[in-house]
Amino acid sequence: MDDTMKCPECNSEHAYQDGALWVCPECGHEWSATAGSPAETSQEAGVRDAHGNALADGDSVIVMKDLKVKGSSSVVKGGTKVRNIRLTEGTDGHNIACKIDGIGAMNLKSEFVKKA
Fold this sequence. Notes:
By secondary structure, the protein is mainly beta. The chain is 7% helix and 28% strand.
């Protein structure tokens, strides 16, 4: 185990390697040792859509495939245009907050949208 590896979130010295990721048992944060810290990665790369275009707050995006809405029987159809998105730091990969007509407020993953 690499004793110099510390958690970038809580600075804990008890981080351990699990496959390709490092894991902090104190705060539960996971990160890649080769990608740098999450703050540096998000500033350099930003949030990108499925085609690699950079997204920003206020952009419009188009949903690329039908997406089931968790906890509901409704579906967001592919081709739905979503206006005025907000970028968020989602721990589960949902990094776009938006409001979809007929469904309401929800979070989307950037890998399922393309910039309009």
